[in-house]
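Data availability (excerpt). All sequences and predicted token strings are deposited with the supplementary files. A representative entry, non-specific serine/threonine protein kinase, is shown inline so that the format can be inspected without opening the archive.
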Amino acid sequence: MFSTAPPKPSADTSTADADADPNAQAFVPIIHRSLPTAGLVDNYDDSEGYYKLLLGELLDNGRYHVIANLGKGMFSGVVRARDLGEGGKGGDGKEVAIKVIRSQESMYKAGLKEAAILRKLMDADPDDKKHLVRLLRTFEHRGHLCLVFENLNMNLREIVKRFGKDVGINLRAVRAYASQMFLALALMKKCDIMHADLKPDNILVNESKSMLKVCDLGSASDTSENDITPYLVSRFYRAPEIILGLPYDCSLDTWSIGCTLYELYTGKILFPGRTNNHMLLLIMELKGKFNHKLLKKAKFTENHFDERLEFLQGGREVSFASDTLKTVTIPSKATHDLRSRLMPVSAMKKLKEDEVRLLGHFVDLLERMLSLEGSKRPTPKVRFLFLRAVARVEGG
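Structure token line:
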């Protein structure tokens, strides 16, 4: 349900199978093992520093009873547990999710940073109305930092797979989810926090599917900590300024949510790029070519463009061999567009007038959220104006 990631990754870990296959689980399932009747062995960690969690195990001096292994990500293992109360007494048995950080110093520090960021956001949202997952407490267990979160049932990736595979979910449901995501984005912007890994996997939904919360702030950082790296954010949701090596801010999260909303409505990945270079090609096909002035400022332009700023398909980030590169002239105007994808004439004939207007508002919003320049993406105020316009269409 949760995973941690280093604040500034140095390699594109999104090339792993979990990112290549958008329907893959966010975590590798862990084989369930029952707690042995004999005493536990002395070696509690595996060779990679993961804690070997056991079903039935008690954590934090008997407070948490492990009832399910949810899996493990690159930087932590996660379990579902029941809260039995301090010392195993007086608890209500409420289920929680516990992220157990790997026993490495860098991971421990990343876990502390995530906890600090979550506390900052919770302090700014004391009434729990801004749709950020709540960190309940932290503790240490056999050398591992453990973060205890409220438990939520599934993520948006699972929602789409279960209820809208290949076709997406109802636009009004997308609108309801969007309004909650925008509240989370507004809170993070207010607190100068960049999430830096927003995607359907990192947005959890409650049992009734009516309420969502943004989770997994393992890659989050203050806006002042914007070191240039081409691999921040999972690849399919990575804003172009990250790939090109330009300064970035909270608007990178707006891009990621734009990609996520498209995916919710269509059931398909908007930019399923195999590499950063392929991502740029797909982005330009939909949004047109980049401004030359912008490319001249970017740190990684030479990885993807020649000296005339013509696009190099294949990219130098993969290979410097000339036979692998192909210069492609990108037209100023996009060869594809969101409106024709989401509002084909054949489909529009089947919709009512108010549904067409609603979809039109949605397309307009996505176009702005996916602006090539972060400074041109809509602010929280503009995003909420969209929601009000939609509400008028719906008569709500």
